[in-house]
Amino acid sequence: MGTENKLTTSWGAPVGDNQNSVTAGSRGPTLIQDVHLLEKLAHFNRERVPERVVHAKGAGAHGYLEVTADVTQYTKAKFLSEVGKRTPLFIRFSTVAGESGSADTVRDPRGFAVKFYTEDGNYDLVGNNTPVFFIRDAIKFPDFIHTQKRHPQTHLKNPNAVWDFWSLSPESLHQVTILMSDRGIPATYRHMNGYGSHTFKWVNAEGKGVWIKYHFKTEQGIQNLSADVAAQLAGENADYHTEDLFNAIAQGDYPSWRLYVQIMPLEDANTYRFDPFDVTKVWSQKDYPLIEVGRMVLDRNPENYFAEVEQATFSPGTLVPGIDVSPDKMLQGRLFAYHDAHRYRVGANHQALPINRAQNEVSNYQRDGQMRFDDNGGGSVYYEPNSFGGPKESPSDKPAAFEVSGNADSVAYDHHDHFTQAGDLYRLLSEDERTRLVQTIVGAMRPVERDDIKLRQIGHFYKADPEYGTRIAEGLGLPVPGDK
């Protein structure tokens, strides 16, 4: 006979009865001395960590990045140091606004967060399936997300708040146009691109830097859902994208993406026609063409959703030597906000969890905190500097210095053209795509109760392209900007 597989308590003691609680006689009442019952109920009450404030609904997978081109002239990052090198990774796809039980097929940006387990520590690339965002300063982020959440009285989604905020934040127009276009509802997580969205800096072994943007191009091809099909799926299978990703990998149909970067010389940032750090803008690929870096393949499903997908934590501040940040104001705010969210949601020691733990040795002086489940540094030295051989800084790994100037003040970006790129995108669309875009926007704006909000937003569309604004105004039965 094999070894008996005994059920135990969380402290390892065998459980004699897991069907009946301890009671005073057959009718009870239940006795508080039943510590197994108390432990089960207490643990059950605590099984759900707080869901993410944004990106609560998601799916994840393991895979690898294989370098396919030599980029060492641009970055000293070790995981990109040679052609053919493979680095394991974990990716989490998600929607943005909905709760953890919401439907996968809603019209919403999709999170595209990748954790690379490199020999120099973890590197997180935390982006979306769009190259731009709705706002360009982190101080507006809590307000923006509030508009995407539920009304505090009705607990219903609130189109008044959505369009009021967007109409008062014209920098959102580019992303709104993408969101309301055919690409607003990807067919699956496998059939969409991913972007780092922000501008980052790569630094090579000689200390020379360049500005870069990341692009993941799906090898499955871009496919999207119509609004009608998406709504049907939301009712029939709210987990459609989650299921599709899991099944594809389980069947050996491994999703893959080609990774490219755009590269901008540092000095170009001062003269480019758009501010290259403004996340509501893109860099023209005619000016800065895509340069291939590698190929990402997803080939393994999680063994446990909670341990891997739910407890996975990502932050754009999780960096490695050779990759640094830019003055992008949204990015600068995220450097704090993401790590802080994880400390609240998962705990101070979230980086030590298996899904988040670096594959190289972690050596620092951080101690204690809730759920410290390793040896907590044992009896080793616990401060720095010290005379006992503890880990020390390595000056060669310092981020490259950069020049800053100006007055400390609350100021916006110098560039205020929020309309050109949105108009360029509109004019790139076919007539059928424009018609669907207009129909989607009209349908989304129709529930807005106040005409002044609608008219303000129509004015933005009109500035991007007169036809764009005119068609939406006509669809809503409102005057075209400039009409008397």
Automatic annotation (TrEMBL):
Compositional bias, Polar residues, is annotated for 1-24
Which residues are the active-site ones?
Answer: 55, 128
Ligand binding (heme): 338
EC number of the protein: 1.11.1.6
Task: Work out whether the entry's keyword set contains Oxidoreductase.
Answer: yes
The cofactor required is: heme
GO biological process, alphabetically ordered:
hydrogen peroxide catabolic process; response to hydrogen peroxide
| Protein name (record) | Catalase
**From which organism does this entry originate?**
Paenibacillus thalictri
